[in-house]
Amino acid sequence: MSELTAAPSREQNMAWLITRRFFKHKLAGIAIAVLAFLVLAAVFANLSPYSPTDQEPTNSFEKPNSVHWFGTDELGRDVFSRILYGGRVSLTVGLFSTFLSIALGVLVGALSGYFGGWVDSVLMRVTDAFLTFPTIFVLILLGAFLREQQVPWLKNSIVVVIVIIAALSWMWPARLVRGLFLVLREKEFVTASRALGGNHARLIIQHILPNCIGPILVSGTLQMASAIITESGLSYLGFGVQPPTPTWGSILATAQNQVFRAPWIGFFPGFMIFITVMAINYIGDGLRDAFDPYVIHTE
Predict the structure, then answer these.
(1) CB burial class (10 A; 0-12, 13-18, 19+) of residue 186?
(2) Model confidence pLDDT, tens digit, residues 186-212
(3) Pairwise CA distance, residues 214 & 71, whole Å
(4) pLDDT band at residue 294, thresholds of 50, 70 and 90?
(5) Is the alpha carbon torsion for 222, 253, 266, 51 positive or negative?
(6) Domains and CATH numbers, the chain
């Protein structure tokens, strides 16, 4: 009975140790609180008193005040409401494109690193081919092409942006996971499990992959931050999610001609992009420290 309870106890102790080490990183703790606040604000954006698309030309270019906290734009739209709804798009794109790219990258990297040989050669040549693509150019080209197709849901769909970003960002986690698998597959615990008759799926899922979780999570934070910046850049250039759906990038695009007349229109979405990306990066720093195997084994 003691042997049956030993493994869960060790796992609980390890989880507690990782959590404690993460929150020792003060900036990471602050960052996760900031990101949680931003997510909640985006989720409950519908509670804002104004619609992000309602236009009141008589109230155009109002400075931030007690009624319109972030002021209004050239069409009299409430900037605060548009920022909240824009956060939904940016955070959704960042989260789901990261999930897809990490999932695909882990699959490719695991198969490549575990089996080696011709499997590794083929998968890595495909990965290298994708890495040669000029990312921004391909994103713009695909975004423009898909919206020209006679399919209504493609013309203004967050799904399109998510899939395109994920399709061009899975290569980095794939190379990371491949490198980890190449090392871990030669470890004694894997060799012992293989000698006891463990099949490939069991060795990959139960023995090797759990030892890659830390680097994968850290990579995921970098992927998410990059995805948010990419989505904002596409929207700024007019190839992301199209109006009337607000995004932080599209709000910045409308503000570029009003920099001196109404600087608040561009300041707030720019600040939101900055603070979100910084928070995600600090969370990544905290995860890196928390999963550091040398520090874990010395505590």
Answers:
(1) exposed
(2) 888 888 888 887 788 888 888 889 889
(3) 42
(4) low
(5) negative
(6) 14-43+72-298 (1.10.3720.10)
